[in-house]
Design a protein that fits this description.
The protein is of the alpha+beta class. The protein contains 9 helices and 5 strands, in the order βββαββαααααααα. It has helices spanning 24-29, 57-67, 74-83, 86-95, 109-119, 127-130, 135-147, 152-165, 173-184; strands at 3-5, 8-13, 16-21, 39-44, 49-54. A 5-stranded mixed β-sheet has the order 1-2-3-5-4. Strand 1 (3-5) and strand 2 (8-13) form a beta hairpin. Helix 2 crosses helix 3, helix 7 (135-147) crosses helix 8 and helix 8 (152-165) packs across helix 9 (173-184). The two termini are 21 Å apart. The relative contact order is 0.11. Residues 64-83, 99-118 form the Helix-hairpin-helix DNA-binding motif class domain. Keywords: Cytoplasm, DNA damage, DNA recombination, DNA repair, DNA-binding.
Length: 190
């Protein structure tokens, strides 16, 4: 990875720097000079080519499903994933929770209803991701990370990714904390 600015990474591929739009969490986790693996989606428009990158396949799948909803463009879909993990998105859709989309820029009440209506039953999250960590372990780790200075959203995202990546670590607070800290990395210190 060559550089990170806001929600954009410049990634070197075959001697060419490609600008990739990412979520703030992905941008914070990226370290200049280190390699990064992203699952990408190319949006082709008449006047531009835009590349969107995601750390996990479930994020990419959720992004592509969000794009299938009438009135949801790539920037809004990326905004949804900046606020909600794929698991949280699946829960919001399955539960009909329009309030979950309130903080997302570009998604109003009508679009939230449309998202729930059109994506109901379509967003499938792996069973390991659904039961990834015991609620007490997650709460303990979230308290620890926010106590260390990480923003709650960043800490929650790292916990979710750690629980999905290492389901066996999700059983204990200590193992889950170590896995989440490994995801946050030394470059993302608060």
């Amino acid at each position: 990875m060559l550089s990170a600015r806001g929600q954009r990474l410049v990634v070197g591929v075959g001697g060419v720097g490609l600008a990739v739009a990412v979520t703030p969490q992905t941008s914070l986790a990226a370290v200049a000079g280190r390699s990064i693996a992203l699952h990408t989606h190319l949006v082709v428009r008449e006047d531009e080519l835009a590349l969107y990158g995601f750390e996990t396949e479930p994020e990419l799948d959720a992004f592509e499903l969000l794009l299938s909803v009438t009135g949801v463009g790539p920037k809004s879909a990326l905004g949804v994933l900046a606020q909600l993990t794929p698991v949280e998105l699946a829960r919001a859709i399955d539960g009909g929770d329009e309030r979950a989309f309130k903080a997302v820029s570009g998604i109003g009440p009508k679009t939230a209803k449309l998202l729930i209506l059109q994506l109901s039953g379509k967003l499938v999250v792996a069973p390991a991701a659904r039961s990834a960590a015991a609620p007490d372990a997650r709460a303990d780790v979230l308290d620890a990370l926010t106590g260390l200075g990480w923003p709650e959203r960043t800490a929650a995202d790292a916990i979710e990714r750690a629980a999905v990546a290492a389901p066996e670590a999700a059983a204990s607070s200590g193992a889950l904390l170590r896995a989440a800290l490994a995801i946050l990395g030394p470059a993302a210190r608060p």
